[in-house]
Design a protein that fits this description.
mainly alpha, 3 domains
Length: 472
């Protein structure tokens, strides 16, 4: 696969496939770098949507609809042939990005397998058989005599799992039990003399297991290639980008205030209680309590306040009023005022800095005496309980939130907090502290104006650049 910065056609070859792609080899394509990025980003939105759905405990039928909607929203292309290309290219791009650590591989493997499973179920029977064959699964359906020998046990299993009783023409495959661990673990299959008897509607578990096994090996091989050659060869171009991708943010730009973001100093305390996410509310409270924050806290809270609409003059007055109680006005003006003006693009390179995304907040590493970072990740359970109780989260919701935290679903924990505090669902999920603020303001306004939407539909996740050889 080659990437080109030139404005040539997106591909010089078309990947043809009559079945669901198995991603056995990289596509022989030349792709514009811009499209390469967009393809990867779109696939990440699909995988993130699946991850969020699973974390929220959606049922099987709800997940099927979710996957269909995600694919329709993000993976379609006006040209059918390009849709196939997009599918395969995006997979290989993310394979490179997610091969690099065990945690990344685990997440990517799970999400890709789940995506494959749902897509397989939506295929026609003929296409399913072809996938079955391409995976090298040469199992044949059991004969009538063997079926009759185990029929009574098959009937018992069918009744236990709530499936129709198998008729005389039912199709069952006999496979080694270790090849369908999901069915065995769920006690949804007959085990007899070391074999599992799987019904035709359960074949997806066998196929998904084979796909997962292949992809797991492929990720390990990709990691070796990345470590041994690609990372060093591309150290000046590809490597820095790829290694930073997992904390990249591609959602809305909150550097400029929105229609809900125009606040003054006198409003801050009230708004902090009603509409600040826990990370920013904690920083705000510590600032009021100690009249000081270290650099990390000043940056995280300061850029957030900028994004919610606190103007530069008000920001200087706000921070001066707090810090002067501890360090004095003269020292504040000498040591701290510059960085505030810098954040607003009025000093130094005059860059208009954006507020931190959830990914950046979560990935930070606060030290002793620091108060920045993500409370869901960095607080002890007791401190988190106390903070959530202060926000008004009830005990039942608190346990749900802590369960997400224990499973490291920090943004989902924040989403559940939002829903508990505001009594309103937020299916889009929380991906940015300033999104939390805006959605909170919308909910509060909707209680006065019922026509106002309760939660914005922001997509915020990772971005990806390239796989293979870059050419200028």
């Amino acid at each position: 696969m080659e990437l080109h910065r030139s404005q040539r056609k997106s591909s010089t070859a078309t990947i043809s496939s009559t079945t669901l792609p198995l991603y056995r080899s990289a596509p022989p394509l030349e792709v514009r770098l811009e499209e390469f990025e967009l393809y990867a980003i779109d696939r990440l939105r699909v995988l993130k949507g699946i991850s969020d759905g699973l974390s929220r405990g959606k049922k099987s039928e709800d997940m099927e609809k979710l996957v269909r909607d995600l694919l329709k929203a993000h993976m379609k292309h006006p040209q059918a042939s390009e849709a196939v290309n997009k599918d395969i290219i995006s997979h290989f791009v993310l394979r490179l990005v997610y091969c690099r650590t065990e945690d990344l591989r685990k997440w990517f493997l799970s999400m890709e397998t789940m995506l494959f499973r749902h897509r397989f179920l939506s295929e026609s029977p003929e296409s399913q058989k072809q996938v079955f064959s391409e995976l090298g699964l040469s199992y044949k359906a059991i004969g009538y005599a063997e079926f009759e020998a185990v029929k009574d046990k098959l009937v018992q299993v069918a009744r236990l799992i709530g499936q129709p009783v198998p008729s005389a023409d039912a199709i069952y495959y006999k496979v080694p039990w270790e090849e369908v661990p999901e069915l065995v673990a769920g006690r949804r299959v007959l085990l007899h003399k070391g074999y599992a008897y799987i019904a035709i509607y359960q074949v997806v578990s066998l196929v998904a297991t084979q796909f997962r096994s292949y992809l797991s090996k492929a990720l390990s091989l990709t990691n070796r290639k990345w470590t041994s050659t690609i990372r060093e060869q591309e150290k000046d171009r590809l490597t820095p980008i790829v290694e930073a991708l997992c904390t990249s943010y591609l959602g809305p730009d909150y550097s400029q205030p929105t229609e809900y973001a125009d606040i003054s100093i006198k409003d801050l305390e009230q708004i902090a209680k009603s509409s600040f996410p826990l990370c920013m509310r904690h920083l705000f409270d510590k600032l009021k309590e100690d009249h000081h924050l270290k650099h990390g806290g000043r940056m995280q809270l300061g850029l957030f306040l900028k994004g919610v609409g606190l103007k530069l003059d008000d920001a200087l007055a706000f921070w001066r009023a707090e810090f002067s109680q501890r360090v004095g006005v003269e020292r504040f003006d000498k040591e701290y005022a510059y960085s505030i003006r810098h954040n607003y693009g009025k000093e130094g390179k005059r860059v208009d800095y954006s507020p931190y995304s959830c990914q950046k907040v979560i990935s930070s590493s606060p030290g002793v005496g620091d108060h920045h970072g993500c409370p869901y990740r960095h607080f002890s359970e007791d401190n988190l309980r106390a903070a959530l109780g202060k926000m008004g989260v009830n005990n039942q919701k608190m346990e749900d939130i802590l369960d997400k935290v224990r499973n490291r679903h920090y943004q989902l924990a924040c989403t559940l907090t939002f829903e508990s505090v505001h009594g309103s669902s937020c299916d889009a999920g929380i991906n940015h502290p300033n999104q939390y603020f805006i959605d909170s303001q919308k909910v509060l306004q909707s209680k006065v104006d019922p026509e106002t939407s309760s939660c914005t539909n922001f997509d915020a996740f990772l971005t990806v650049l390239s796989l293979g050889r870059l050419s200028t």
